[in-house]
């Protein structure tokens, strides 16, 4: 009798477990320890197709693979992750994971294979900055995550080398083997559930380059009745110089205006905005705080200064950074337990310096800008960086700005 009762209880538990909703988790490793580099011998021409279907353009600096996440019946969350180590490149470079719908008539892929170029742009509004806004059959790439490579993480200065001991500050116990970032991309899930290309670009010009792993994860809600949210994504602008584009110093001369049309069924419209300043020289856009002003139909909706003053906290990812000695007067505890004061020298690394919205070894998360109750029809988004500086010889001032519109139905 007791055995029969136990069997009945076990059977009931099994039925309960089978009937309970489970999370559906989808994992896709898009690129596994992929080397991104500049190698004209290995990747000649504009576009190469590898045996596994990977597309390579820009002589190895950009790779793309076709993916398609499954349709979710319940609400879901999507995440993109990047793990990166130096493959020999010791410099800080901008990196970007982005998405291109396969249905798009014009993209960097059609430009690379010579079938269709970027559409012409209004010179009065965009000068010669092709590919940064929508045109005939073309929409700019939507970023999934922007990151900045640190100085030589995982490759330069091994932990047990004498060099490591000479460049490592006293407060740092070790250098990291890799850098890793994750961002929630649920707002862009609709782009990933149609056939699309996921791209990875790193602005490296060395043969050694970097090694990166990129993965996508989608986790569906376990709550029965938690219906999927219908989101739509409209790319607005992307000023990153991916392929055959220009460094965008347009903001030094004028605001950037982007027209768009909102359908009648749209609600909860929101702009996602990512901005970082670059140039690599003292006094330029990279090292000077500059306000970004975002307006909708002439009304300001966001004003902020992309600035990172915590770059010193990323020193453990930057073994190959340049280091200076800085003198200062310091108060310290003597061997007798009293307080003394004297001039000392401290190390200041290039990776420690504050920058316009990023640090060597950081990612650059988007700003969320709610637009409130927005009427359907034609609108104009305007982006201004009033103190941006023009690019000159040896001074490549430019701003990497991406923005996309998301709404629900």
Can you walk through the features of this model?
With 409 residues, the protein is mainly beta. The chain has one domain (21-408): Peptide-N-glycosidase F, N-terminal domain (Jelly Rolls, Sandwich). 9% of the residues lie in helices and 39% in strands. It has five helices and 20 strands. The strands form five sheets. A six-stranded antiparallel sheet has the order 2-3-4-9-6-7, with no helix packed on it. The longest helix has 18 residues, at 2-19. The relative contact order is 0.20.
Tell me the total number of β-strands: 20
Spatial extent as radius of gyration: 25 Å
Q: What is the CATH fold-level name?
A: Jelly Rolls
Determine and state the CATH class: Mainly Beta
State the gist of this model.
The protein is mainly β. The chain contains five helices and 20 strands.
List keywords for this structure.
single chain, four-stranded antiparallel β-sheet, Jelly Rolls, 409 residues, mainly beta
Describe the SSE topology.
Layout: H1 2-19, E1 24-36, E2 47-49, E3 55-57, E4 62-67, E5 76-86, E6 94-101, H2 108-112, H3 123-126, E7 142-148, H4 162-167, E8 179-184, H5 189-192, E9 196-202, E10 210-220, E11 231-238, E12 256-262, E13 267-278, E14 292-296, E15 299-304, E16 323-333, E17 339-349, E18 367-370, E19 377-384, E20 398-408
Antiparallel strand pairs: 1-10, 2-3, 3-4, 4-9, 5-8, 5-10, 6-7, 6-9, 11-20, 12-19, 13-18, 13-20, 14-15, 14-19, 16-17
